[in-house]
Amino acid sequence: MIRTAQVIPVTVSAKTTWLFIALDDGEGNTGWGEATLQGQEAEVQDIARRLLDDLPALDPNRLPFATLPQAAAASAIRQAHDDLAARRAGVALSRHLGGTRRDAVGVYANINRRTTDRSPEGMAQSARDALAAGHGAIKIAPFDEVQPDQDRATMARAMEPGLARIAAVRDAIGARRLMVDCHWRFDVAGAEAMMDACAPFALHWIECPIAETPETIPALVDLRRRANRNDALLAGMECAILRAGFAPYAAAGAYDVMMPDVKYCGGPREMLAIAADLAEHGVVFSPHNPTGPICHAHSLHVCAALADGDLLEMQFDESPMFASLVKDGLPPLTDGAFDMATLAPGLGLSLEIPETQFGTL
Q1: Residue 99 domain-assigned?
Q2: How large is the average pLDDT for residues 176-192?
Q3: Of the residues 239, 265, 273, 295, which has the fewest C-beta atoms closer than 10 A?
């Protein structure tokens, strides 16, 4: 029985507000979820508060997923509900989801948000800092100047600073895995040119080069072939909702790697079902996870509940609040992986948020 619910925004930086949901059973157990959606925090908060208005009638299986803000609020409620149930059962969330099948979950560092110096050397230094912190694989979003509506010549010029950033990071990290996130900044012709220009950098994957819509699936299939010819994978689908959102892309062979986000895809159980669907199509499962500690913890437990899967994304060092808000501590990072063998019930952590850090939306 859920007695109380809270929707808690926490301002992290000029770029980011984390949005958390807490469900309390009145018996000392609190389940946590995260609904962070950059640029749409106020809408997500309003939706979440309406959904939580009548707690006795709350059914996590009957929540709206028609829009991304709805999906963020509903997914966070499902996260918190599963966390609370695992805590009440006295078991780790991964066990509650069907069993802990991996004692260690490997991660890669997304260094984009902590890199305020956007020069090639600034990005390279962030990569070196991530390696020093124990990471062995790096993701960057280097194409700040590119926009999909640019003409061909303008896009070609705008791409050059991004290529310089990639080259600097490659030099900084040597042969370690390097991934590039394009944030849907290219049109098809521009993406083709970018992939060819990136071939010398031995990228592990290129992520989200163009808009992801049913109409762009044929172009994505072609771009996947082009990436593969350059010995890179094509990755995407971080904003897809529920199993149905991934299905047409998986069936068409649009991506080598798909990146469900527990904040949007429908929560932990739906994410496990998506992973099973992707495996049937030979698509690599590598969750999107670039935000706060609750999304991070849920993503770790989902990965631990799977027998295999690729590395999990982790936002590196955007804010010290990633650790300072956490009560009882995150599992330790060792050699690029988190130890999941000895966690407390539920997520294994809670948040302790001073009221002075509550954001305003």
Answers
A1: no
A2: 98
A3: 273
